[in-house]
Amino acid sequence: MDTPNTAALRRTPLHPLHLAAGAKMVTFAGWDMPIQYVPGILQEHLHTRTHAGLFDVSHMGQIEVSGPGACAWLESLTTADLVALPDGRQTYALLTNDAGGIIDDLMIQKVGPVFHVVCNAARLAQVQAQFAAHPPGADCSVTLHEDRALLALQGPQAEAVLQPLADVAGLRFLDVREYPDAVAGGLRLSRSGYTGEDGFEISLPAAAAPAFAARLLEHPQVRWIGLGARDTLRLEAGMCLYGNDIDDGTTPVSASIGWAVAPARRHGGPRAGGFPGADIILAEFAAPPAKVRVALLPDGRAPQRAGARIVDAEGRELGVITSGNHSPTLGRPIAMASIARAAKDAGTPLFIDSRGQKVAAALTAFPFVPNRYRR
Amino acid sequence: MNHPDNLRYTDTHEWVRVEQDGTVTVGITDHAQDALGDVVFLQLPDVGRTVARTEAMAVIESVKSASDIHAPVAGTVTAVNQAVADAPEQVNQDPYAAWMFVIKPDSASELDALLSADAYSATLG
């Protein structure tokens, strides 16, 4: 087993709590992060679907964009409609490159005059490089907040758990609110997440995070959940994982996330285009690209994982699995794949080349497990 | 970790019980099941298959990863445990009850190369 040089790894403010909880730690994007705790991935997954799971996602990049030019500058780099984003709301957005590929997928919140951006830990350097290549003017400032933690509380009991600490009952899916008195320095949360469940993502000062997490964990319904279950939960919810299902060579429509290109930024919209790769990306709404991301239900019980080839009955290559695993909720394998759009449209029978055996796979619709957002 | 003294081991994390009739019963160790995490799938060999020593002859998959299970000795598969393939979580619950297959060794002398519990534990560092 590899023994990474853990001294060189970054640690979140919750790191001592993970060790105390018996977490198995792994290296993720340069951080020493919990992949699972004592119950294990299956139990953690099911606990999140039935109770409330607490995730430390403090490794993610938290970037503040402010100033009179903030909205226009962020729109010049992303697919979002930030002009129309109401105060106290959050939107999913794509940071694109000149080829129409995805540099990163982001959550952007608007709170008063300020935009708060969350990016993937593994993509922070590329996000910063894109920002540096397209620097804002004097009317906009960009600040990376490495002094903040990020927690996610997910599951049907999340609201009941959080309510005594912050009045969240009135929030709907993708609402954002600040709670200046909840902890020293205040916290900001959104009703959102990466599991398909109702839940909250909570940004707070690093110094306040361990005590706040401990208070949440005092609730009998709350358990720590590791990155392993985070991945199986998001897979069941049909959500893309950057680096697996989307990357800088994947366009939004080919990844079946064309919805992340706001109507206002498409042809016929009030601010069509105006972000890197817009010509390529917008053309794909009229002339769909050759690839498409699909949901698959592989036959049998064996998990079918990323990298396995998708072929037709004659063995001709049609695509590749981009994410796949055992679904704890469904008790069967599920997978996302990037395949030839023509094969999807024609209903071509699909097979997975699984260690030399051909395993049939049925097309289904996302999500694999219905989401339970409070809209 | 629990690695019973009455069993023999491989450096690829199989346990081996030498039966009175000279066959060997094989499973994976407590260390292996703990490292794999929740086991969700087990692909067993066909009875009658002949295997070389260290040959990958079965597949075990957890939510985390897929691993091969290797033949501890050369021989012929004489039995497989379909019950554990049908309920692979048994591997996590009791790895030494969840045997996977039985091999009739070609040569009893290969058993000498297997590790004692102490020697196996030492490989885990």
Report strand order across the widest sheet of chain A: 10-11-12-9-3-13
Shape of chain B, please?
Answer: globular
Question: What topology, given as strand order, has the largest sheet of chain B?
Answer: 1-2-3-9-8-5
Q: How many distinct helices of chain B? A: 4
Assembly state (oligomeric)? heterodimer
Characterise the protein shown here.
- The complex is a heterodimer of chains A (375) and B (125).
- Chain A has 375 residues and is an alpha+beta fold.
- Among the domains of chain A are: 15-58 and 147-236, Gyrase A, domain 2, CATH 3.30.1360.120; 291-367, Beta Barrel (Elongation Factor Tu (Ef-tu), domain 3).
- Chain A contains nine helices and 19 strands.
- Chain A has helices spanning 15-20, 41-50, 70-75, 124-133, 158-162, 209-218, 227-236, 278-286, 341-346; strands at residues 24-28, 31-36, 52-56, 61-66, 89-96, 102-111, 114-119, 141-144, 148-154, 176-179, 187-190, 199-205, 222-224, 291-298, 309-311, 317-327, 332-340, 350-354, 357-364.
- Chain A is globular.
- The model of chain B has no long low-confidence stretch (mean pLDDT 96).
- Chain A binds chain B through residues 1, 35-36, 40-43, 228, 232, 301-303, 305, 325-326, 328, 355, and chain B through 35, 37-38, 40-41, 43, 59, 61-64, 66, 92.
- Chain A: InterPro entries: GcvT, GcvT/YgfZ/DmdA, GcvT/YgfZ_C, GcvT_C, GCVT_N, TrmE/GcvT-like.
- Chain A: It comes from Methyloversatilis universalis (strain ATCC BAA-1314 / DSM 25237 / JCM 13912 / CCUG 52030 / FAM5).
Keywords:
heterodimer; A: 375 residues; alpha+beta; Gyrase A, domain 2; Elongation Factor Tu (Ef-tu), domain 3; six-stranded mixed sheet; six-stranded antiparallel β-barrel; 9 helices; 19 strands; B: 125 residues; OB fold (Dihydrolipoamide Acetyltransferase, E2P); six-stranded antiparallel sheet; three-stranded antiparallel sheet; 9 strands
